Amino acid sequence: MQARKYEVIAFIDDDKKLTNTTVRGVAVHSSDSVANLIKLYNVKTILLALGQTTKSNRSSIVEKLEKFEVKIQTVPTLEDLLYGQAHGQEIRDIEIEDLLGRDPIPPRKDLLDQCVRDKVVMVTGAGGSIGSELCRQILSESPSKLILFEQNEFNLYRVESELKQHFPNENLFSVLGTTLDRTLVSSVICNFNIQTIYHAAAYKHVPMVEKNIVEGVKNNALGTWECAKAAIEHSVENFVLISTDKAVRPTNIMGASKRLAELILQGLSKKESKTKLSMVRFGNVLGSSGSVVPLFKQQIAGGGPITVTHKNITRYFMTIPEAAQLVIQASAMSTGGDVFVLDMGEPIRIWDLAERMVRMSGLSVKSNTNPDGDIEIRQIGLRPGEKLYEELLVSNDVRGTEHPLIMRATEASLSWLETQKLIEELIQHCKDFNAVKLRELIANAPTHYSYDGINYDLLENQKEKIVSIDSAKLTRLRSGKQNTD
Fold first, then answer.
1. What is the CB neighbour count within 10 angstroms for residue 75?
2. How many other CB atoms sit within 10 Å of the CB of residue 355?
3. Residues 141 and 34 in one domain
4. Residue 312, burial from CB neighbour count under 10 angstroms (0-12, 13-18, 19+)
5. 74 and 46: one domain?
6. Are residue 317 and residue 261 in the same domain, yes or no?
7. Residue positions annotated with a catalytic role
8. Does residue 160 fall inside a structural domain?
9. Range of 331's domain?
10. Would 298 be classed as within a structural domain?
11. Of 337, 317, 334, 315, the residue nearest 413 (C-alpha)
12. 22, 80, 159, 331: which could join 86 in a potential S-S bond, CB 3.0 to 4.6 Å?
């Protein structure tokens, strides 16, 4: 067993009834004794058995332990052991995902069920981080069928294998292809009589899309157009785009292409009444492919350095399960053309995140004041199109909904004729492989996209203004002072 690797020298518990007692010969101490015990016994690892402790309490406990340069790990809860979700020997490193974010609000069953239960549902981009979690959440709500649509063969194989293992009795079907192929999408919709589509297929890596502008716009914007058009032609009930906070005043093609996708759905909704088109906008999800958390883990395991683009860069974070649950609930409130925005909580400074991950590994940060530290954190400069501070809202016209973490924003949009012209020009510039014309077209559309001469120093100086605008809106909504739908 893994437990044989450890010599238990003390138990820590703040229950006064347990202090100065023993468990199988090992003394129980209060948390005030931690520093002395670490020094006396040269402790290298602390195991946390916190059960159902809230994230806020768990984070507070870990924060107190981080200063001791010990490795912090966690053991399964009794509930996990009883129900077979973990094994007694399963001791693992505590993850930053265990600490960040907030304690989740229980989902509303009526909202989860509305677009999913007993429905035929398709998820595009089903093999991605968000797409695969949407599939897990959807299968938990007993759909009639679930169709996995994915252009990456290995990702499709991987998610299908996992879902069949955990949901062996569900009607699960896999389709390999791209959403740019409207004939294929239409065929799938017709053959399965699909009622709800969650469109998560997208290129999302900012620097990669910046280097491949035409393909980024084709996949993210025109892929949405082809998929939505097929959905409308075959009377799909609900079509939901997974969007991003990078679509707000974008400074990169990835964000701009997602804002184009939003504009296309907004335009389509002005001529379409049968299919409810909506989009759900949120920030980074913890642990997704390409995110900083797995990258930092890899860099720490390799001895460093950890690379951060800018010391003051911040991002919003949410756990993948919470984001997926909120997307499904938001789709149930759609009236057509809705821009839903998820309340992401407070933004997190990435440099602080890196420091915390180093300390949680039982290591110290190497710096000018601590030259003998273990892991250096190095600033490498902002990447092309990268913003210091992401925003969730553009318009001041934002309202609450019946769910406390879901808002409905009113954003600039185009008429259907203007949308049609935009799509035609996007298609032509992509056929011509003309990235310059694409940039100009995107900048002239109501995307708020800017890419030339971005002054990041100025942007940094405006941090307080930007953050205060978002914070003020969110505070009003959280306090219930805004009108709700």
1. 20
2. 19
3. no
4. middle
5. yes
6. yes
7. 246
8. yes
9. 109-292+310-349+387-478
10. no
11. 337
12. 80
Edge-first strand listing for the sheet containing 196-199: 172-176, 145-150, 120-124, 196-199, 238-242, 276-281, 338-342, 406-409, 398-400
Return the structure tokens found at 220. Answer: 């993210």
56 within a domain of the structure (yes/no): yes
Tokens 């002395």 appear where? Answer: 36
Q: How many domains, the chain?
A: 2
Q: Which residues contact 106 (CB under 8 A, 6 or more apart)?
A: none
Q: Supply the angle between the helices 292-301 and 350-360 in degrees, to the nearest 10.
A: 40
Q: Where residue 188 sits, what CATH number does that domain have?
A: 3.40.50.720
Contacts of 123 (CB under 8 A, 6+ apart): 131, 134, 135, 138, 146, 147, 148, 149, 197, 198, 200
